[in-house]
Amino acid sequence: MNPEGRARVEAWLEYFNDLGISDFCLDRASSAVEAARTPVEPIPAAPEPLLRPARVASSVVDPNPTHVAPVLPVIKSASLFAANERIEGDTLEKIREDIGENCRRCKLCEQRNKIVFGAGHPKAELVFVGEGPGHDEDMQGLPFVGRAGKLLTQMIEAMGLCRDAVYIANVVKCRPPQNRAPEPDEIETCSPFLYRQLAVIRPKAVVCLGAIAFQSLTGTKPSMSRIRGQWLEFRGIPLLATYHPAYLLRNPNAKGDVWEDLKKVMAHLGLKLPAKR
Ligand code: SF4
Fold first, then answer.
1. In angstroms, what CA-CA distances link 154 with 104, 159, 161, 256?
2. How far apart, in Å, are the Cα atoms of 32 and each of 6, 23, 73, 78, 136?
3. pLDDT tens track of the chain, all 277 residues?
4. Which sequence spans correspond to the domains of the chain?
5. Does 99 contact ligand 1 (Cβ within 6 A)?
6. CATH of 50-269 among 3.40.50.720, 1.10.10.10, 3.40.50.261, 3.40.470.10
């Protein structure tokens, strides 16, 4: 192996080690080198697809028989996620430790105040995933505590749940400057920690809040209007996207759409609809 190739391998191994992934076979290391050279191809021999083509979970069958779910490709970070799946005895505490107190793996560290790991019940049946912390979250180190967070709390309570019963996390754990959307390299660097959180919690459903969260988990870029409210399956976990609460603050007329989406989640979780609102 030439020096440049060796340096690439060492950089990847160091990155995986930072994520708490230490067991590699030769082929995995070779894939990492290849990934550094070219856009990552899906791994056809993976024991289970990372994202199955839009298969609707049996317990959440779309009542509209004419609906055809979009076919989604395998996510790009296939090898990394597959590796994450092999972490034995992983816990939320270990993931937090692996991130560290002063993570500098991506450029979002430069203006961050606090890392926002996520919060909620460690065995929650329902996980909400947003795109990244905002100003209030950055100051407090907690997810969804600003205006949008208050609206999310109202949404959760409207479902008959309390915040402590669910888990809330973001794709990136540090605030993007001026609340811009996280950039692809930042998502690629930080999202493996979210994958590990989901693998540990194993919720019955994941609700993606906004397009960035959906795109980050599925590796696809459909418009929100196209995929909102549809059940997909992500590594065996039913996943549904709805509008981000910040979008609802700007577009309150969309609250009805979100409520329809949340009712689907409630039905899936076996929650009773509240009395007439
Ligand atoms: S966003 Fe994630 S990877 Fe980037 S510095 Fe923060 S914790 Fe580290």
1. 34, 9, 10, 14
2. 11, 13, 20, 11, 37
3. 667 667 666 655 554 454 444 444 333 333 343 334 444 334 333 333 333 333 334 444 344 444 333 333 333 333 344 444 558 899 999 999 999 999 999 999 999 999 999 999 999 999 999 999 999 999 999 999 999 999 999 999 999 999 999 999 999 999 999 999 999 999 999 999 999 999 999 999 999 999 999 999 988 888 888 899 999 988 889 999 999 999 999 999 999 999 999 999 999 999 988 666 5
4. 1-38, 50-269
5. yes
6. 3.40.470.10
Nearest CA to ligand 1 atom 2: 190
Most ligand 1 atoms within 8 A of CB, residue of 14, 97, 107, 112 to mutate: 112
Q: Looking only at Cα atoms, what is the longest distance across the chain? A: 69
**What is the CA 258 to chain-centroid distance, rounded?**
19
Distance from residue 105's CA to the centre of ligand 1 (Å):
6
Residue whose CB lies within 8 A of the most ligand 1 atoms, among 186, 212, 216, for a mutation test: 186
